[in-house]
Automatic annotation (TrEMBL):
Entry protein name: Thiamine-monophosphate kinase
Family note: Belongs to the thiamine-monophosphate kinase family.
Keywords: ATP-binding, Kinase, Magnesium, Metal-binding, Nucleotide-binding, Thiamine biosynthesis, Transferase
Catalytic activity, reaction form: thiamine phosphate + ATP = thiamine diphosphate + ADP
Positions contributing to Mg(2+) 5 binding: D213
Positions contributing to ATP binding: G120, D121, R145, S212
GO BP terms, alphabetized: thiamine biosynthetic process; thiamine diphosphate biosynthetic process
């Protein structure tokens, strides 16, 4: 890309948080980092492509937040502490009016989580972003998808469904009420990675996953990896007032909550013996948690409303089809 090194120097080098465990950061052929003892390194890579994960004319500061937050969310699902990030940017032409707000937002979120940029690349092509975030978690304590047991309780953080509603607003698929549209659009792009929650769950949860493809799909990953089933109480699903106002009908809002992708909330399971202490253990995080169901034997998956089993046919988000 023309002016690549000028862009790197102006917008990326020297702006990052300075961590003591980074021996050599961006500006050389490789970064050098020193990991603490007795930890495992958690690594997550995501690619966001214009037209698939965000519109090409989307607010660049929102795009930056979404790109970094989605990667940090993967670390939070394993209880990891964010440490380092590398970032590759492909764009059609150098565009400082786009890069300036993008980088301001990127480094604001990185600084909040004490996350240091340690390397990256820029090149010419269709607009896309690839990030690799690394962090650390105590050895043998990382949360996984594979630990759920029959009888465990299923929890989620925050409210669900807002991201899908926000996407509908962005794509103008639904004639949203104006008082809800901006809030929902922001919630699609400006998620809050649940890092503190993930860390607090290390000794409490039996499994965890972040909700990126929709609750049904992502809980399905826990079921598959753990060899279990699940029962969900749809009336327990946490719904925001904005989503309720947007959909105007509880059952529609509940279906949004079950299928909404790119929420970046956590879904986790808790053994019966930890259920009584889970809320107090997470009180310092300031994050709402809701028990929405229970793990059942393998082969069982049901959506329940009271004593009634619903026959809703729902799917999560499919990035290749680009729809929910």
């Amino acid at each position: 890309m023309s002016g690549e090194f000028n862009l790197i120097d102006k917008y990326f080098v020297g702006r990052q948080s300075q961590r003591k465990d980074v021996l050599l950061a961006a500006g050389d052929d490789c970064a050098l980092v020193k990991s603490p003892s007795n930890v495992a390194i958690a690594i997550s890579t995501d690619t966001l492509v214009a037209g698939t994960h965000f519109l090409a004319d989307a607010n660049p500061s929102w795009v930056a937040h979404k790109a970094l937050a989605s990667n940090i969310s993967d670390l939070s699902a394993m209880g990891a502490t964010p440490a380092w990030v590398s970032f590759a940017l492909t764009m059609p032409e150098p565009n400082e009016e786009w890069l300036a707000p993008f980088c301001d937002s990127f480094f604001r979120l990185a600084d909040y989580f004490s996350l240091q940029l340690i390397g990256g690349d820029t090149t010419k092509g269709p607009l896309s972003l690839t990030l690799t975030v690394q962090g650390f978690v105590p050895e043998e304590k990382a949360l996984r998808r594979s630990g759920a047991k029959v009888g465990d309780w299923i929890y989620v953080t925050g409210d669900l469904g807002d991201s899908k509603a926000g996407l509908d607003v962005i794509l103008d698929n639904v004639n949203a009420h104006k008082q809800y549209a901006k809030v929902l659009e922001e919630r699609h792009y400006l998620s809050s990675p649940r890092v503190l929650v993930g860390q607090a769950l290390l000794n409490l949860a039996s499994s965890a996953i972040d909700i990126s493809d929709g609750l049904i799909s992502d809980l399905g990953h826990i079921m598959t990896r753990s060899g279990v089933g699940a029962s969900i109480d749809v009336d327990a699903l946490p719904l925001s007032k904005e989503l309720m106002g947007f959909t105007q009908e509880q059952s529609i809002a509940q279906q949004y909550a079950l299928t909404s992708g790119e929420e970046y909330e956590l879904c986790f399971t808790v053994p019966e013996y930890n259920k009584g202490s889970i809320e107090s253990a997470l009180s310092h995080t300031g994050t709402k948690i809701t028990c929405i169901g229970q793990i059942r034997p393998i082969g069982t998956f049901e959506l329940k409303k009271g004593d009634k089993v619903l026959d809703w046919q729902l799917n999560g988000y499919d990035h290749f089809k680009g729809k929910q």
